[in-house]
Amino acid sequence: MRKYSYYIFLCGLWLLLIGALELRPVRWDMTDDKHYSLSRASKELLRATDEPIEVTVLLDGDLNAGFRRLKKATEETIEEMGVYGNLSLTLPSREGTELQDSLGLRPIVIHEREQNGKTAQTTVWPYALMEYKGKRAVVTLLKNTRGLSGEENLNASIEQLEFAFMEALHLLQQTETPRVAILEGHGEPDEAHTYDLMSALSKYYQVDRGQIDERPLRSKTKDRDEVAQRPVNVHILDGYKAIIVVNPQTAFSEQEKFVIDQYIMRGGTVLWAVNGVQFSEKVLQSEGFTPIVALDLGLTEMFFKYGVRVNPALVQDIQCLPIPVNVSTDPQQPNLQPMPWTYAPLLLTSQGSPITRNMGQVMSTFVSPLDAVGGEDGIEKRILLATSTASRVTATPGEVDLNDMNPDMSTFMYQYVPVAVSLEGSFASAYAHRMAPEGIESDEAIRKTSVKTRQVVIGSGSILLNETQKGQVLPMGYDRYSGMQFSNRDFVTNAILWLTDSEGLIGLREKSVVLRLLNDKRAHDKRAQIQTVSVVLPISILALIGGIVWIIRKRRYEKV
Fold this sequence. Notes:
This protein is an alpha+beta fold. It has 14 helices and 29 strands. The strands form 9 sheets. Strands 7, 8, 10, 11, 16, 17, 18, 20, 23 and 25 form a 10-stranded mixed beta sheet that branches. Strands 2-1-5-6 form a 4-stranded mixed beta sheet, with helices on one face. Helix 3 runs parallel beside helix 5 and helix 7 (about 195-200) packs across helix 12 (about 490-500). The protein is globular and about 105 Å long. The chain starts with a helix and ends with a helix.
């Protein structure tokens, strides 16, 4: 009886264990790249939801192998999210595009060549719709980056699935829109040429713009001298998650620098898009050349304290944009031909930063090189953008000449010149051993060291600007001569998200999924052999095991 009681006890214990696992599943991710695991930030964000989340995946229909893999990865990501939050997955089965049309989504047409040589056309909707508390957010599942193959783009899309869903959920959970500010008052570009910048950021933030003169920031000031005489509140920028400095042309006052410095010391973040040289594009277009001289913005000492230097020079690169040049000798019959413009480099992006991971080239014009300084200051510095392997640096004073379209290639000896860096750590104040400037309204001591915070420094404001054509605003990174779209918009958006990322969500973009591709040529050449082995080998192994078992059993029972 004791023996049966022991077995009954073990069965009861096993049933209790199974019940506990049913109530709370235990999951082990045995993959090298942790493909099926969510980050701590994602889990916390999902656990913070107090109502159901409905996810509708629009990627459906007759998909090829690559998009079926993307769809499967999407469903697996949503399933994993459902372990930590109340999610329901919907795959629309009805025909038509009513939902897609109501959201203003555009399909992607895929052209594929079949084995018989014919071309097949498929329309896919690489989107998902997330709904929470009556609000909607569209998740783009496919990241289409110029310069990457179809398989690489699909793999990059799978890598970014967790970030895409968590970014959408973060926006849905926000009850108050954070604010960022674009500073003015130093000859910065007008609103027409920063319109796309504000449009890109408006998805995440309330974007203000104005001068450091009163609270809140205002966009216009009649008399700058009058403003300079007013006491400036040192806390004027405290309500902003980040401030953006875009292509200033005149020097910052001591009061403005002090306010920005102390804003950083209190944990504020800044995106600096400043040039080290001064030139005139109007003179260049009218005269064909323009002198370039060092641009003194009064920020050199501050940058040096923060760990970076903007050099008074311009980079040239063989990998560059073309511009139309009149090669005709007859003024009555112009002949415009595209010629490489080395002062408009196409910048390479780093795979070592979440800001630029899996991102294509970034368009720029008239860019200054950067140097990292203060190697023992404890500041983590990462290169975000750099030139190609064939670059050179033009120092000041000098000139830019439109006739210089065929430079000596042997002089392009520099490689990967950095033009944008990210800085993270505790920064030393530029006013640590100085008194506060006159005209500062403050009742507290100068902060000499910052809390841990972040900055991004770019050696050109052109990366953040958009062009206009016949009164229409063109997107950032769009080259109207070649018709190509570059990754400027994604770069700027990711940079601001990284600066203001207190939840750690932007770090999800560092997730890597190893791309394991088949050798298509080998698979095609040895197709029959591979199919034969795949079918015959498993059956042969099972038959061999069965035969061995049969022989063992026969010998055992023959002896009996």
